[in-house]
Design goal:
This protein is an alpha/beta fold. The protein is built from 16 helices and 16 strands. Strands 6, 7, 8, 9, 10, 11, 12, 13, 14, 15 and 16 form an 11-stranded mixed β-sheet that branches. A hairpin with a 7-residue loop joins β1 and β2. It is globular. About 14% of the residues have low confidence.
Amino acid sequence: MATVHLRIGDLVWGKLGRYPPWPGKIVSPPKDLKKPRGKKCHFVKFFGTEDHAWIKVEQLKPYHAHKEEMIKINKGKRFQQAVDAVEDFLKKAKGKEQNSDGKGDSKGKKTPTKPLKILDEDDEDLSALKDPSEKPASSMEPISKRLKIIEEVTGSTSIQAADSTAINGSITPTDKRIGFLGLGLMGSGIVSNLLKMGHIVTVWNRTAEKCDLFIQEGARLGRTPAEVASMCDITFSCVSDPKAARDLVLGPSGVLQGIRPGKCYVEMSTVDPETITELSQVITSRGGRFLEAPVAGSQQLSNDGMLVILAAGDRTVYEDCSSCFQAMGKTSFFLGEAGNAARMMLILNMVQGSFMATIAEGLTLAQATGQSQQTFLDILCQGQMASTFVDQKCQNILQGNFKPDYYLKHIQKDLRLAISMGDMANHPTPMAAAANEVYKRAKALDQSDNDISAVYRAYIH
């Protein structure tokens, strides 16, 4: 294969670690930023973001030659916005060239065209690619200091590193010591991403063997939840249900025994608001600081660092967790007082669980009426309900693959808690109640530890 020589000003696709290739341009690095030793690389400024990084030459491809290939394999709104930004820039650059050509000499000779030069950040024409509401940031400013703050009418706030999770090798990890309790489907991916982004992490799990892999990746081992809480500045937990969450804090050698004034505890489990209120009160009674931060997503999204974090409680803890949230998720929302995140999470999971049951019902009805299930899926994925979730779950059902990405027993627990929350608010939840009964039947058929898509089996047995 012929070697492609790149230089400052070239448009490229840059691949950083496990993140997808992203459009950018090779620019001159800041004077005080040294090139990594022993590596052939270029300094790349990525389009549609405030991110920049040294990228190895083997991880760079010319933009135009690989554009069609990259667009086929990469999806997502932010990715498309970045590509659109590049194309808008090229159109403007081409327009300038044409205007320049029209000013040739009177004998019809064209002015020699110069190679296309990609403007640096401080060039005037690039400003059209940026959000005019954003304040300019120093090229060397850590990403943890460059947060988009989006205030909503409801008063909630979304804090999102400037597209960091698309290419977030530039995250500046907090210097605070991080603890993490619970290495299940979600917790394992979260811890892996915290470590990859340079955080100092101490782990604990009820089944100690699950810690071994993370110790090999650089994590430290805590013997008990109390020890982890006492050793760390911020301790996260992610466990299965309200009882497990309470036991972790209030039980023997629990978190509460390790809480001292100023210590932070972040509850990431999906539980009911009452449990959150109780945990918040006991943590703060010891001088600790409390935040709830349940996550919307799946095992795959956890592994990919693309979770959505819903946070509520102590706003200063939320801000202290910014680099952690950037490492584990694509965005995070601050929803106010403790309990609000639990409420929102249960509503979201209620909708997801009900929707999954309805999809399973449609697939089985198609089969019962002599229709092709694959054709049903093909039609569904071409309409308004098309989504990665629908496609993946339906394909899993058709292939008989129910390996858990989100446990069926957990979505049933969330439906139960959402229905209870509706009862307390005197609000009807008949759709969720019907879906809950289907999941209960699936559990009776020994599907608890399978994926939520295994609710399909409740209709065929």
